[in-house]
Amino acid sequence: MTTIAILGAGKIGEALLAGLLKAGRAPSDLLFTERYDQRAAELTERYGVAGVDTPEAVERADVLVVAVKPQDIEPLLDLLADTVRPGTLVVSLCAGLPASLYERRLPAGTPVVRVMPNTPMLVGEAMSAISAGAAAGPEHLDLVEEMLGSVGKVVRVPETQQDAVTALSGSGPAYFFYLVEAMIDAGILLGLPRAVSTDLIIQSAVGAATMLRDSAEHPVILREAVTSPGGTTIAAIRELENHKVRAALLSAIEAAAVRSAELGRAHDPA
């Protein structure tokens, strides 16, 4: 069996660890690194997976999943540069960091797969986009797709599209949370108790998302089905259009893509 080491067992790293175990991976085939000893002990107790230091993870693992924060990547790459074994697959979950950064710092020919997941991984509903680096082949993408399929849905994209993916689905949950927060406040403004407003909006969001996923209908068709002539919904839609909500969303997502590209250039100016 392939041994997988997750370098950085934060929320996303732990979610992937849990998903791999749920999908049938044996604890003995998994490793993780964690800078805080108490948390490492808690994770080992919770999952039965060994917490190790980075050199041991590199020595034992066939796949290294890099799940540290982008600002922590440089010291990790310094450590990996002289220790990664030939043929080891490196999977990057770090937002904005291109495969070329790893390829430039790691031994020649190291296969790298760049991934943009999102936080619904914590509930097994991630949307992850994967891209092959220069030395990664179909077999590497197959393995990464299998791994990430344990915590949600996976799509393959060219790496040139990863900044757009980061802006759209990587940051996407925050946009929905922001919208839900505003709608809950609107319910309170209209006189509803916070708990009632929250229940109404969350269940409406869950139901709408399920309809989008399961009906195969275009969002316009689903929206029009709610929008009766002269009714309440069209009055609300008119206000959204008057306030240029659609244009604001386009601009916001474009800004996120620009920032993703900036993060990549900061670490890999080439």
UniProtKB/TrEMBL annotation:
Enzyme kind, highest EC tier: oxidoreductase
Protein name per Swiss-Prot or TrEMBL: Pyrroline-5-carboxylate reductase
E.C. no: 1.5.1.2
Reactions catalysed: L-proline + NADP(+) = (S)-1-pyrroline-5-carboxylate + NADPH + 2 H(+); L-proline + NAD(+) = (S)-1-pyrroline-5-carboxylate + NADH + 2 H(+)
Entry function: Catalyzes the reduction of 1-pyrroline-5-carboxylate (PCA) to L-proline.
Residues reported to bind NADP(+): A67, V68, K69, P70
InterPro entries cross-referenced by the UniProt entry: 6-PGluconate_DH-like_C_sf (IPR008927), NAD(P)-bd_dom_sf (IPR036291), P5C_Rdtase_cat_N (IPR028939), P5CR-like_CS (IPR053790), P5CR_dimer (IPR029036), Pyrroline-COOH_reductase (IPR000304)
Keyword Cytoplasm set for record: yes
